[in-house]
């Protein structure tokens, strides 16, 4: 059965340096170097918790520690050459929440953002003209929510394709007629990919917006969302 799940891990208080260094030793050198290069402890800890979780997940799933997680040239992580796993995984974080998305088949991209006040004139740089017109017709109190829904979905899309922030968000968008009917339909993505993509937008704790994208899992409506204690990743 094709499905996907989302796992939210809290950042929590700062881990002791000795404990952190001990846990780093269990990761590949390139991941240790990447984590250690972060300047502030929050970024180091977010990355460490995400990596520890996915390594623990694959150790249990594959019943072995003999697997390799690599990265593409653009930095997207993936499980290298496993015949037992045809899916994908992806990370995101915002504030004190770390999000991991896992699919059993195909690619998955996820994004999480904590809602906060922003200069909404930024929409002209990341919305299509169709999205801008829809946005302007919304009541003022609806605009911030609409922005974060669109933003997280677009982030999830470019993370699914592996293009990341090299793609201009104003170059592709969503059909606003479908949006008004509760459907998320991508349009203008042909410059990026000719594949069909499926989306889900949801909220967590009222102030976190989550976008999910998959190129194979059509029904994301029943996606599993689970919050775990951070010490379960150790």
UniProtKB/TrEMBL annotation:
Q: Where is the 4'-phosphopantetheinyl transferase N-terminal domain?
A: 21-96
Keywords for this entry?
Answer: Transferase
4'-phosphopantetheinyl transferase domain location, by residue? 108-213
Q: Which GO terms describe its molecular function?
A: holo-[acyl-carrier-protein] synthase activity; magnesium ion binding
GO biological process per UniProt = lysine biosynthetic process via aminoadipic acid
Cellular component per GO, a single term: cytosol
The source's domain of life comes to Bacteria
Question: Entry's InterPro entries?
Answer: 4-PPantetheinyl_Trfase_dom, 4-PPantetheinyl_Trfase_dom_sf, AASDHPPT_N, P-Pant_transferase_sf
What PANTHER family does its record include?
Answer: L-AMINOADIPATE-SEMIALDEHYDE DEHYDROGENASE-PHOSPHOPANTETHEINYL TRANSFERASE, PHOSPHOPANTETHEINE TRANSFERASE
Family per similarity comment: Belongs to the P-Pant transferase superfamily. Gsp/Sfp/HetI/AcpT family.
Protein name as annotated: Uncharacterized protein
Organism equals Priestia filamentosa
Q: Provide the taxonomic classification.
A: Bacteria, Bacillati, Bacillota, Bacilli, Bacillales
